[in-house]
Amino acid sequence: MTRTKRRDKVSNQNADEFRGQILDWYDRHKRTLPWRAENEQKPDPYAVWLSEIMLQQTTVTAVTPYYRKFMDKWPDVQSLADATQDEVMHEWAGLGYYARARNLHACAKVVAYELNGLFPEDQSALKKLPGIGDYTSAAIMAIAFNKPATVVDGNIERIMARYFSVEEPLPGSKPLLKSLASEFFENYEERPGDFAQALMDLGAGVCIAKTPRCSLCPVKNGCQSHAAGHAAELPRKSAKTAKPQKFGYVYWITDGEGRVLLHRRPEKGVLGSMIGLPTSEWGSKKDQKKPAHLYLLEKKKPGDLREKPVSIHHSFTHFDLELRLQTTEISRKQLKDNTYFWVDPQDIQNYGFPTLFKKAVKVFATT
Ligand code: SF4
Q1: Is the CB of 131 under 6 A from ligand 1?
Q2: 50 Cβ closer than 6 Å to some ligand 1 atom
Q3: What is the pLDDT of residue 4?
Q4: Best of 219, 221, 224, 233 for a ligand 1 pocket test (most atoms within 8 Å of beta carbon)
């Protein structure tokens, strides 16, 4: 298949040929994944939705144990809707991007209580549900309901960029890559779910990020960047700007009788609704000399706060964080805010801390 810089439309014949080659390969090489329907099985929309939410910005390897745990505990949308938000957040702890877990639970409630437990078989209706955007709605349409929808994840973007030798860098080229993919997906009614999953598998195993395995690829004869010998250089990416650096304190605060203070973070914001150790505000790096301490510690003298010799570092999507670790004691009477509460240290593991606080607990325990 050839394309000029004007990017003519792919002919129906060429689109059929491309899909046929991809699907033949898929029938021989598809991955076995716990959320994937096998052979004649009908896909379970709940399993497809749950896995697609978990897989956003997260690898199959990281997601698999979480997916299995969720399915064991909540095998259908009704059981997930009936869980408390705390239970869901607790089981999600460690997977990151915690807004996904809050939206997952909110979406389960809408589907279970307002839609009779059925996910809508319509992309615009799916997009009205919490946490479901363009990509996830298309994936559910294609994979769960086998209906035509243009599914474009990072793997499929990479294949399109290489197959059509798109030189424009990401993320600016996203609309173009989506429109190229749509030429294969749009109005394709035969096996849209398999076709989407086939491209995902090809991207995960053959058209891989750094060194594409073109000799194994079913569409190498039509691939423009392979022919030009520069497949590994695509897709190009715009230069990244450095993430801002934030700074703060995390505290191990005890009550003099061995109990440790925990905090439920506000619903809005980073790690929203998650339980962890108390922290100060997170300021910019230039505030490092005078970070605002947790309000409970405002009256402490400098010597009352004992600092650990090491800091912890954690990278969020939009900033990097450095937290210094301090220990101190306060009296139980000082607590006036019910988002703070005391626990026995051995019970901390029951609270499903996010990774940031797991790191902090480890350092407090070992230094
Ligand atoms: Fe990717 Fe190579 Fe296949 Fe082209 S030939 S789609 S670069 S694996």
Answers
A1: no
A2: no
A3: 42
A4: 219
